[in-house]
Amino acid sequence: MGCQWRLDPALGLLLPLQPAEASVICFVSTDDALAWRPWPEDPSTAAAALPMTAADAAASDARQRRAHALAVGAHEAVRGYASWVVAGACAAPLLVREEMGHTGTHVWHAAWAHREWAVGGAPSDLFEGRAVLELGAGAGLLGLSIAARYARAEVTVSDFEGHSKSARGTVLDCLVGNCARNVPLIGGRVRVCELDWARPDEPRALWPDAGVHAVVAADTVVATEVVYTTEGARLLAGAVAACMRRPAGQLYLLNNARRTGVGTFVRACEDQGMLVERLPVPRASSVPLGHSQEASIPMGGIVSTFSPWCSDQDSDEYVFFRVTWSAN
């Protein structure tokens, strides 16, 4: 996959030449983009699979960095490279930063399918004028998209500090940053809280009002790719039971069907007095620009890129569940 890029000085981002207008832009920092290597750091561990010698790899890296410096010129405030772009005319795009430190701050293909359903395929009364909670929000694409689409939705995006940590911070740091940078677009209708599924009755507000006890009672709960262990599945069912309003609250979960714990989640919901219905799986009608920043090579002001691992969402089998309270 190859494409050409341009520098947008107003956004401080390197964007593809097409589309000319974007409604959603995910991006990674310049440091993350330039630090990516399409070869092992230790060539001796995978010599047979190396596409080039260690010397060639080092020379390629040096050329890339020189070309990047040439491409951005005197623009010092360059945030980074776009990683996903959704075409669309709007006053200002939704900006979501991904971080390469851990999986929790990546935006995955399932999130795009869930987002497209939420902003275009779902009944609007699921979100408009409703209290919405996203569980395991990660970078926050789904929850922020709902807030941007539905002017009267009150959205809480949540994750857990213990889920994943790195030297640069936690998933929650990334989530707070993405909410803060989109205030001009979403106003004050989004908040961030830490929600430990093992203690769902003790949510902690992080942004914009940090440190206070958060009350989470959602009309509509959404989650994407959050089930991957049996214990986590049980905890998730308990968290949904604690946070979803009775009697009319609903959860919409899109998850890889082959993950460990999917069946456990269904049974745990039933044990909590909830009904689980399997719905047709939503699909993204157009695939956004993939993780093409991963091997970006700027060339004289235009960036030519190659994406080595942009997988198709159809390569995985997904399930889409609606969970409601049982009438009994």
TrEMBL record:
Organism superkingdom: Eukaryota
Keyword Signal: yes
N-terminal signal peptide: 1-22
UniProt keyword terms in alphabetical order: Signal
Pfam families per the UniProt record, alphabetical: Methyltransf_16 (PF10294)
Keyword Ribosomal protein attributed: no
Entries under InterPro entries matching the protein: Methyltransf_16 (IPR019410), SAM-dependent_MTases_sf (IPR029063)
Name of this protein: Calmodulin-lysine N-methyltransferase
